[in-house]
Amino acid sequence: MTKIIFATGNMDKMREIREILSGLPAEILSMKEAGVAADICEDGMTFEENSRIKACGVREALPEDLADAIVLADDSGLEIDALNGEPGVYSARYMGENTSYRIKNAELIRRLEGVPVEKRTARFVCAISAALPDGSVRTVRETIEGKIGYAEMGENGFGYDPIFYLPDMSRSTASLSPEEKNKISHRGKALRAMEKELAGFFRDGGAA
Ligand code: IMP
User: Are 123 and 79 within 8 A, CB to CB?
Assistant: First the structure.
């Protein structure tokens, strides 16, 4: 059976990806489960580029017995329009990797002081790339649109969720349950889009 290796060490992501890709005729493995290690510099200018760099880098590092495996990698982050798209691809590194999100979120709210509600538009973006055994790469990109709130709200989620407000739902993404969030999130949508891409690939006999 074809192996799909997802380039992450994050177990929450692995649970979500296993669930969404469960219909594919493939075995889904984390890098650790596949026994693969690779240190890749994500120096792309876009989410798409970074996910491609990661997927291709890990595929190149695969041992011979995994030569037929598909490698998936994602890159995601928050784009705030009033800040010219910041923090963008630097979302994890914004103000330093080790700075708490309490501080990062407070700083973003401070930087938006005086920005009216209609200009506080933002989106979470997720790009996922699949590096296929024939050397080709497929990439999908999905978003969820929202607005930056005036204070943190909600206890669930992680990262920038407490300041990412969904006007239609009158809640932040940190106020949603994981199931509710997966249905509408950038990552959930991108995973489902990639599932469709890969289903087509398997249907065409690509991984025979
Ligand atoms: P990664 O590419 O999945 O590692 O995500 C990069 C960074 O983007 C995270 O460390 C968070 O700062 C931010 N981010 C991505 N997705 C979300 C989300 O769903 N909620 C909150 N923050 C997110």
Answer: yes
- Which tokens go with 139? 């990439």
Ligand 1, CB within 6 Å, residue ranges:
74-78, 91-92, 124, 157-161, 185
Q: With beta carbons less than 8 A apart as the criterion, state whether 159 and 167 touch.
A: no
The pLDDT profile of the chain, 208 residues, written as one tens digit per residue, is 899 999 988 888 898 899 889 999 999 999 999 999 888 888 999 999 999 999 999 999 999 999 999 999 999 999 999 999 999 999 999 999 999 999 999 999 999 999 999 999 999 999 999 999 999 999 999 999 999 999 999 999 999 999 999 999 999 999 999 999 999 999 999 999 999 999 998 988 875 4
Where along the chain do its domains lie?
Answer: 2-203
**75 is a catalytic site residue:** yes
- Output the residue whose Cα is nearest ligand 1's atom 10: 92
Task: Specify the CATH architecture of the domain 2-203.
Answer: Alpha-Beta Complex (3.90)
Nearest to 132 by CA among 52, 64, 186: 52
